[in-house]
Amino acid sequence: MRTSRTARAGQYLALLAYLVFLAFPFLWLISTAFKPPRELGSLHPTWIPENPTLANFRQAFDEQPLLDAALNSLIAALGAALIAVLLATPMAYVMARHRTRLARAATGWVVVSQAFPLVLVIIPLFLVLKNLRLIDSMPGLIMVYVVWALPFALWMLVGYVRAVPPELEEAAAVDGAGRLRTLVSVTAPLLAPGIVATAMFAFVTAWNEFFFALVLLKTPEKQTLPVVLTHFIGAEGVADLGPLAAAAFLATLPSLVVFALIQRRITGGMLAGAVKN
Prior knowledge:
12 helices; transport; MetI-like; BP-dep_ABC_trans_perm
């Protein structure tokens, strides 16, 4: 009993340390965003700003087109998430229900493809988009985001499809439901948490992506928010720390809002009690 309590206490302490490790950069970012220039240059920085100010936020919006960049990021992220889910869902169902050698090979390729570095694929992607005349365009960027997010989205959805008991589909078939009716009325509602989680992954990945947007978008009016954030760093590498922290804080809010809105949906356990022995 003592060993069990000690082990559980150690687990909680490890979890707490991990949460502190994750929260530290974000909390320091918030603190920096509200500090005046005098406190930013202090040799003894404090967690809580002594004289909090919104000047950094005003300066950030005055110096860079943050709203336009955020709109570009939103269009790219929503488009990539929607297309990736629409493509990955039927593909994942086929791979999960028909476990052939080809399906296993495709699953292995999906996992291996995630190990490819961005530098390895950027040149072929650039040449393909150049031939399609999609360089410096939002459709071209969305296409790249879909290609990059699709393997992992497919891998996620395969696991969710396999968690849906095939007995439910067999029972619907016995009751006279066709294949399409079974997929729409039985399987799709049970896959809703997985589809939402996959869409969230694709959205957050595209929202935070920097490298592809930097290489493929040249027109300033089309640049996404992560690229615009680099404009707060001067030619000599000196960062305008206050406005940069304020803009970076605003850039993280959509991801936090997405997690907060769909957290219950992801962890709701919609399969609980679906099959009874």
